[in-house]
Design a protein that fits this description.
The protein is of the alpha/beta class. The chain has 11 helices and 10 strands. Helix 5 packs across helix 9 and helix 9 crosses helix 10. The radius of gyration is 22 Å and the shape is elongated.
Length: about 300
C-alpha cells in the first residue's frame, strides 16, 4: 500500500511500527480486537511490506467474559480479510490466583504469545494514554523510579511501538481502515482501578492541569527511564564489587539510602515491592538474627550480612 493511501492517523500508527521493525525479518503482534491492538496489527501489515518482514498476529482468548470466543474469532476473521496471517490461542486463567485474575491473565497471555513467536519480537498496542495511566497508578502505590518510568519501549522480547501515539489516534486509524474495533466492557468497569483512572481521574486532571497532562506524564516516564538505567548500572557495579550472590548481600551498612534501596531491589525476587525493600533495609538497623518475609522467600540478617532463603 502506498504511503499516500493511508489516512493521517493510520499513517501515524503505521510509521511508528515501521520505525520499530526496520531491520528485522519476522515479528508477532498481540491483538485483542480493541482499537489500539487492531490499529497496531493493521499498521504492522503496512510496515512489514515496506520492510520485507513477515508478521503473524496472535489473538489471545482469555475466556474470562461471555462471548470471548466470538470476539476472538471475529478479530481473526477481520485480519484474515485484510490478508494477514492470524491465529487464536485460548488460555486457561485461574480465578483464584493469589496475584489476582488480571495478573494471571497477563502471565497466560504472554506465555501464549511467546509460544507462537519463539525468539521473535512481540509487538503490543500500549499507547501514550496507557503510559500516563501507568505513571499515575505507580505514584498512588508509592513506587520507586523503576515503576514510575512506566512501560518501556522495549521490555525484553515485548516491544511497544505506540507509546508516542494517543488513543484517539488509534480509534481514528481504525475508522480510516474501515474496521470496527471491539470495545472491552472492562475498560469502563469501575470495579477495576485502571478503568477509574481512565474514565474519572484523567478527565479531571485535563480540566485542572490542561490538555497536555497525558503527554507530560509520559515525558516524565521517559526521563525517569533514562535515569533509572543509570542507577541500575551503578547498583550492579556495586553488587559486583561487594561480591553479592543470589543468597547473600554484605556491606550495605552506611551506604547512601538511594543506592542501598536499588541494590536490595535488584537482589530480591522480581515481584518484591518497595515495602519489602524498606523492611529488609530495616533489618540492618536492628539486632542480628531478625528476619522478614518477602515474596518467594525470607530474608535474615547476621553480622551485617543479609541472607535470602528462597521457598521452593
Amino acid at each position: 500500500m502506498a504511503r499516500h493511501e493511508l489516512g493521517p492517523a493510520a499513517l501515524t500508527v503505521a510509521q511508528a511500527v515501521e520505525r520499530e521493525v526496520r531491520g528485522i525479518d519476522r515479528f508477532v503482534v498481540g491483538c485483542s480486537g480493541g482499537q489500539d491492538s487492531l490499529a497496531l496489527a493493521l499498521g504492522a501489515k503496512w510496515a512489514a511490506r515496506r520492510c520485507g518482514a513477515v508478521v503473524m498476529v496472535v489473538v489471545v482468548d482469555h475466556q474470562l467474559q461471555d462471548g470471548s470466543q466470538e470476539v476472538a474469532a471475529r478479530t481473526r476473521d477481520v485480519l484474515a480479510d485484510r490478508g494477514m496471517d492470524a491465529c487464536v490461542r485460548r488460555v486457561e486463567i485461574d480465578p483464584n490466583d493469589p496475584d489476582g485474575p488480571e495478573a494471571a491473565a497477563r502471565t497466560a497471555r504472554r506465555a501464549a504469545l511467546i509460544d507462537v513467536a519463539g525468539e521473535a519480537p512481540i509487538l503490543l498496542g500500549h499507547t501514550l494514554d496507557d503510559q500516563a495511566e501507568q505513571v499515575l497508578l505507580s505514584l498512588a502505590r508509592g513506587s520507586g523510579a523503576t515503576s514510575l518510568a512506566g512501560i518501556r519501549p522495549r521490555a525484553g522480547q515485548f516491544w511497544h511501538p505506540l507509546l508516542g501515539v494517543r488513543r484517539v489516534q488509534t480509534l481514528q486509524a481504525c475508522e480510516e481502515w474501515q474496521v470496527e474495533p471491539w470495545h472491552d466492557p472492562h475498560n469502563s468497569d469501575p470495579r477495576f482501578l485502571r478503568s477509574r483512572v481512565r474514565t474519572e481521574l484523567m478527565p479531571v486532571m485535563r480540566d485542572v492541569l490542561g490538555p497536555g497532562v497525558a503527554e507530560s506524564l509520559a515525558r516524565s516516564a521517559a526521563l525517569l527511564a533514562g535515569e533509572d538505567a543509570i542507577v541500575t548500572a551503578v547498583a550492579a557495579e556495586w553488587a559486583r564489587d561487594h561480591h553479592v550472590t543470589a543468597e547473600t548481600l554484605p556491606g550495605l551498612r552506611g551506604v547512601e539510602s538511594g543506592l542501598a534501596r536499588r541494590v536490595v531491589k535488584n537482589w530480591l525476587p522480581d515481584d518484591a515491592a518497595m515495602v519489602h525493600v524498606d523492611a529488609v533495609l530495616g533489618l540492618l538497623e536492628g539486632p542480628g538474627g531478625a528476619g522478614v518475609d518477602v515474596p518467594g522467600g525470607r530474608v535474615e540478617v547476621r553480622r551485617g550480612t543479609l541472607y535470602l532463603t528462597r521457598r521452593l
